[in-house]
Specification:
Arc Repressor Mutant, subunit A, 6 strands, DNA-binding, three-stranded mixed beta sheet, homodimer
DNA sequence: ATAATTGCAAACACTTTGCACCTGT
DNA sequence: ACAGGTGCAAAGTGTTTGCAATTAT
């Protein structure tokens, strides 16, 4: 039984989407924003195509997905490009409620958080999907 | 100008929904679960009614809302009854990905987390909407 | 040539809204 | 009597699916 690697075609739609995601790696974007961006570039792409490509990137481990902040109205899922080597499953993420900027919390304090939660609250922390919200450095200043 | 308190009628639908929420204060339930529960009790309530009452409780400050864990497929919004005196806006919440159990993290360590995040990452933490996921004490044991 | 990619229209799941009817006070 | 609550049907939103047409290799 031959194991055959599925080939992949290069298309300008995908290239455009990927560019946009990479340019915005430091924050989160929605499927709709991608669509709007592409349209503005006169390279309109169907929403279906966008969702399918996002799904693909996700499976390959190059995309983080964020559901809207709990309690938020009218939110939608947003996405962020990440290198798979980033080990995003091992640290928490801080997301700015204002601008969508995401900080990877990969510092030593992570261990303390995890062990406090385990020792005092009995929980085995799962970083994947756990997001802390707040105002980032930039947005703190500007009176909302 | 008279300020008039809007009156409120007691109905068995609302009483049933509230009972169910209160009985399950330690965890999170969805609108659909409430619907199913009421039907099982032979006290069927329309989904519209459920959503409208949940909205009301939320406005009154007696309900926490949780969007599905980031990245989770097919999740829906879930709700938890809380006394408004609980000050849920001042601590984080730990939610079990398996059983939905929620732990209020109102311990001293909260301050340390907030100050680390502020000092090292520049973020002003916003507890409202920030949820950490993991496996609770009970679910840790049982091989998933 | 042929497998991957795309667009369209329809289906989906969950939630919200408008409106006429019903119910608690 | 009448404000408040409810159910129904329809609309809404964001996302997914089936399928036939198109495109990269």
């Amino acid at each position: 039984m031959e194991k055959r690697v599925k080939q992949e075609y290069k298309t300008s739609s995908r290239a455009g989407i990927l560019d946009y995601l990479k340019q915005n790696r430091q924050r989160t974007v929605s499927a709709g924003e991608i669509h709007t961006h592409m349209k503005a570039q006169n390279r309109q792409v169907n929403m279906t195509t966008i969702y399918r490509y996002l799904e693909k990137l996700e499976v390959e481990g190059n995309l983080m997905q964020y559901t809207p902040q709990s309690g938020e109205k009218n939110g939608c899922v947003t996405y962020q490009y990440v290198d798979s080597k980033h080990k995003c499953g091992e640290h928490l993420h801080l997301k700015c409620v204002q601008c969508g900027f995401v900080e990877h919390m990969d510092c030593d304090f992570m261990k303390e958080i995890a062990s406090h939660i385990s020792a005092e609250h009995g929980f085995a922390l799962e970083c994947k999907g756990s997001v802390l919200y707040g105002l980032c450095k930039n947005c703190r200043g500007q009176g909302r």
